[in-house]
Amino acid sequence: MRRFRHFIIVAVLVALSTVGLRALFSVILALPRASSAEAIPIDALFNGHYWMIAFLFSLIMVMMLYALFVFRRPADDDSDGPYIHGNTVLEIGWTIVPTVVVLGFGVWGAITLNDITSPKPNEMTVNVTGQQWVWSFAYPEQGDFASSELVLPVDRTIVLKMTAEDVIHSFWVPEFRVKQDLVPGRETTLRITPTEAGEFALRCAEICGLNHTQMVATVRVLDAAGFQAWVDAENAAPAFADMTPEDRGAFWHSAEGLGCVACHSLDGAPGVGPTWQGLYGRQEELEDGGTVTVDDPYITTSIIDPNAQITAGYLPNLMPQNYADQIAALEQEIQAAEGVDIDIIADLIAFIKTLE
Ligand SMILES: [Cu+2]
Questions:
Q1: CATH classification of 124-235, choosing from 3.40.109.10, 2.60.40.420, 2.60.120.460, 1.10.10.10?
Q2: 261 alpha carbon to ligand 1 midpoint, in Å?
Q3: Omega of the bond prior to 276 within 30 degrees of 0, cis?
Q4: 256-278 mean pLDDT
Q5: pLDDT for 77 beyond 90
């Protein structure tokens, strides 16, 4: 009877401590709001784990502290403790129960993963490209335009087909819960079904170099009508053939274009590379001690062979070395789509000339 009393007290203390700890986790380990259909089963998994962690911690700590205080040796008791030689039932129990629990969590996790990654009806594809240190998004089913913001319709499963230009990046919007790496030379996919309209921040979750922390993009979730209106506005953008070289140059500089914006500001602000404000005609000191006047050939060389002349105070090997290929591929794409020859480097030079 006396032994039973200890059991009941310990069970009640364990239960109280479990509930208390779980409540504490809700405060100190709070998750951001859940804004995607995928977040719901993931949050259920988190919830299950939090309960399990709270229970196991309580079970061990309550029993240990209870024994320490309640079964403390009286001051005058110098006798030996009882001789105990194991307990087979207990040992089998504490082997089997945790095994079943761990396997159960494993199965639950596998089912959830399969559930949130499997194809859904009426999906929409968005292509995502990560490069140091900008995101860009293309909409192949809506007219194949590119955007520096990720705009999504609510309540529709989006398949993100993702790749990286340079190093590994990682797509992460905490409110959507799911996360996936972008790997150069390979396509990875991620499915998201946004469940509420709003604005979110996409962060790169893989340390990817100097400006990793600035690799952020806006995600806007719109209702169906709002999304269609945005798509129409994007598609109404003029063809490259109808734009002035200066306007095209500004476009190439942006994240939708070639992403020069990641390193080159237009307003004199310091960056990873020199600002383009007042660049044309500037006397530029080079790392090797020489000086050049920034003109068409210097800019051209700087783009297609960045390490040929390093501007003083800046580092080599930061500017992507593959712009010659990227630009040739883009020019070919535009030739195929619009039947015109665009000279992207000339556009960039025309744009830089406007930045007094
Ligand atoms: Cu990154």
A1: 2.60.40.420
A2: 15
A3: no
A4: 91
A5: no
- Give the SS3 label for residue 216: strand
- Whole-prediction pTM: 0.71
Compute the distance between CA of residue 45 and CA of residue 37 in angstroms, rounded to an integer: 14
Q: Which CATH superfamily is domain 240-353 in?
A: Cytochrome c-like domain (1.10.760.10)
For ligand 1, the distance from its centroid to the CA atom of residue 94, given in whole angstroms, is 45
- 10 Å CB burial of residue 243 (0-12, 13-18, 19+) is middle
Helix axes 323-338, 344-353, angle to 10 degrees: 100
Percent of the chain with pLDDT over 70: 99
Cβ 189 vs Cβ 154: under 8 Å: no
Q: Which residue has the higher pLDDT, 219 or 1?
A: 219
Which DSSP state fits 36?
B
Q: For the residues 238-249, what does the mean pLDDT come to? A: 89
Separation between Cα atoms, residue 44 and residue 111, nearest integer Å: 12
Span from the CA of 200 to the centroid of ligand 1 (angstroms): 17
Which residues surround the ion ligand 1 when the cut-off is CB under 5 Å? Answer: 169, 204, 208, 215
As a whole number of Å, the CA-based R_g of the chain is 30
Mean pLDDT within 264-285 = 92
- Structure-token match 């996790």, residue found: 109
Q: What is the pLDDT of residues 298-315, one digit of tens each?
A: 999 999 999 999 999 999
Cα–Cα distance between 154 and 51 in angstroms, integer?
Answer: 32
Average model confidence (pLDDT) across the chain: 92
Question: Domain segments of the chain: what residues?
Answer: 2-69+90-117, 124-235, 240-353
Q: How far is the CA of 203 from the centre of ligand 1 (A)?
A: 8
Tokens of 240: 């490259």
The predicted pLDDT at position 36 comes to: 96
For residue 292, the cross-strand partners are 284
Distance 138 CA to ligand 1 centre (A): 18
> How do residues 116-171 score in pLDDT, each as one tens digit?
999 998 999 999 999 988 899 999 999 888 888 999 999 999 999 999 988 999 99
